[in-house]
Write a structure and sequence with these properties.
Radius of gyration: 27 Å
Bound molecules: adenosine-5'-triphosphate, magnesium ion
CATH architecture of the largest domain: 2-Layer Sandwich
Amino acid sequence: MDRILGIDLGTSTSEVAIWDQGKPNLIPNDRNKVIIPSVVGLSDEGQVIVGQDARDQLLIKPDETVMEIKRIMGTNQTVKLGDEVYTPQEISALILSYLKNYSEDYLKDKVSRAVITVPAYFTDEQRKATIEAGKLAGLRVERIINEPTAAALAYGLEHIADETNILVYDLGGGTLDVTVLEMFSGVLEVKASSGNTTLGGKDFDQRLMDMLSERFHAKNGIALQDDSHALARLKDAAEACKIALSTQEEYRVLLPFIAASQGEPLSLDETVTREEFEILILDLVTATAEPIENALADAGLTKDEIQLVLPIGGTTRVPLVQKFLTETMGQEPRPLVDPDLAVVQGAAIQGAILNKELSGAQDLLITDVCPYTLGTSTITHIGGVLIKDYFDVLIPRNTTIPVSKEGTYYTVADNQEQVEITAYQGDYKQASLNNLLGKFMLSGIPPAPAGDEGIKIRFTYDNNGILQVDASIISTGKKASITIETASQNLEPEVDYNLWKEAPQASKFRALIRRAERRLKSKAGAPQWGELDGLILDLKKALIKNANSEILEDLAEDLNSLLYEMEEA
Ligand SMILES: Nc1ncnc2c1ncn2[C@@H]1O[C@H](COP(=O)(O)OP(=O)(O)OP(=O)(O)O)[C@@H](O)[C@H]1O
Ligand SMILES: [Mg+2]
C-alpha cells in the first residue's frame, strides 16, 4: 500500500516518521540523524542545500541562509537566497523535498503522501501555505493536523486505557499552542485550543541578543546590528547560552573578533546568569497564561480537573517555563512523551489511521476543533436600530470539526442586485475589526422590495482547518463560492468573461456554452436560471484560467445535466 509519511515541519527543526509494525518509526537521514534543522542555504557551487549542511555554514554565509521560514508562512513576504527570490511555501517545499528524498532512500520505496503538522493556532492562510508547500515538494497532503493533537495521539497510543483530561502545552521555536483534551476509551476529544503563532524560543534568543549587543555597544560604542556576520554569530551564541542556562546557573558568551575599532579587533565577552536570563524573558513566559486560561475556559474545565499537563517542544526545557507551568496549573508538568518527537510520531499515527493500519487494540479515534470564531458581516436590526458591519458568527471558536453551518440573510435595499459576501475570523462584534479571510460578490438578485430576497451563506470547515464559503440566492438557486485562499490571493480579480473564446480549450465547449446561453435568454425567469447563469460563468472562468480538462469536463457535465433538466420541464 502507498504509505503516508508523518512530517513535523518545525520553525527550528523538522522530523519525519512512518508507521511500521504497529508503531511510529522515525526515519533517519544518510547521517543517521532524525532531527533536521529547518534551514536552507546555498553551497559554494550555488546549489540549494538543506538541513545540517545549511545550518553549518550559517556563520560563514548568513546572507545565503534562510531559517525560521515558518514564522512568515501564509504572508506575502518573500526571502532572498543568492539571486533568487522565494516565497515561504517554496522554502518550506525545499525542506519537505529533502525529508521526502531521504525517506525514500531509507525506505527503498517511493512515497507521495504525507500528513503534515501545524500549530493548532495556525490560521487558514498558514494552513493553505503549508498544503501548497507539500504540493510543491511532490507530496499529496492527506491531512493537516494540529501539533498538540499529534502529541496527544502519541501519548494516547501508549496509554489507550486512560481516562484523563490533558492540557498539552507546546512551546517550540516559534509558536505556542495550548490544547485541552479529554481522553476516554481510545477516544481523544479536543475540547479547545488557544495560542500564539509568533511566540517561542526564538524570542528568548532575541532578548538575549538585544541584551548582549547593548552591553557591547555600551562598552565599545559599536552597534553589532549593522553587520550580518556579527548578527549571525550573536544569534548562534544567544541560543547556545539559553540552552546552557537550562542546566547551568551561568554561561560565558565569548565571541572573539566580533567587530573592529580603528583596525583593532574587538571581542564580546559576557557572562549571563540564569537569573538575568529569567528576568529578560519573564514577560514572555507569563504571557502564556492567557492562552492557558482561554483554552480551559472554552473547554469548560478548571485547573483542578486537568490530570495531566503534557509539555511539548524544545522550549519547555527552560526551567522558568516549568516553574511557571507548575505554579499556574498547580501541578508539575509530566514529560510522558518525548518533547521533540511526539509531534512527528503523532503525524505518523494519523497517517496510519487514515490508511486503516491500526490494529484493533490500538484503535484510536481523535476529534479536533476550529480554534477561531468564523463569521460574516451583515446589517442587522438590534432594538430597532440599524447596525452596519455587524459580525454574525457562523462557527463559534472551538467547535468540533468538520463542521458546516448556514445562515440566511435578506436584501436591505429595494431592487438590490448584488451582495458582498465576506468571511472574517475573530471575536469582535464589529466585523471589520476581525481578520478578513476573503470576500466575493454574489450578483443577479431578482428585483424585489428590500427584505424580500433571501441569501443563504454556508461556511464549511474541514478536517484540515480549511474554510469553504458558499452563497446562494434562495429564489433562483444562483450560487457563488470560494475556498478561502492565501492572503496574497484574497481578492479575486475581476474576470472579463468574454475572453473565454480565446482560451486554448474553448473550441471543445463552444457548442455547449451557446446552447446554454440560448436557453438562458429564452427562459429568463425560470427557477433554475440563476444556477444556469452561475454554471456558464464557472465554465467560462475555468476556460480562461486554462483549468485542467478534468475540471472542465466536470463543469460541462453539470451544465449538460442542468440543461437536460430544464429542457425536460
Ligand atoms: N535544552 C534546551 N533549553 C532551552 N531551549 C531549548 C533546549 N533545547 C531546545 N531548545 C529550544 O527549543 C526550540 C526548538 O524547539 P522545537 O524543535 O520543539 O521547535 P520547532 O518544532 O522547530 O518549532 P515550532 O513547533 O514552534 O514550529 C529552539 O528555540 C531551541 O533553542
Ligand atoms: Mg514543533
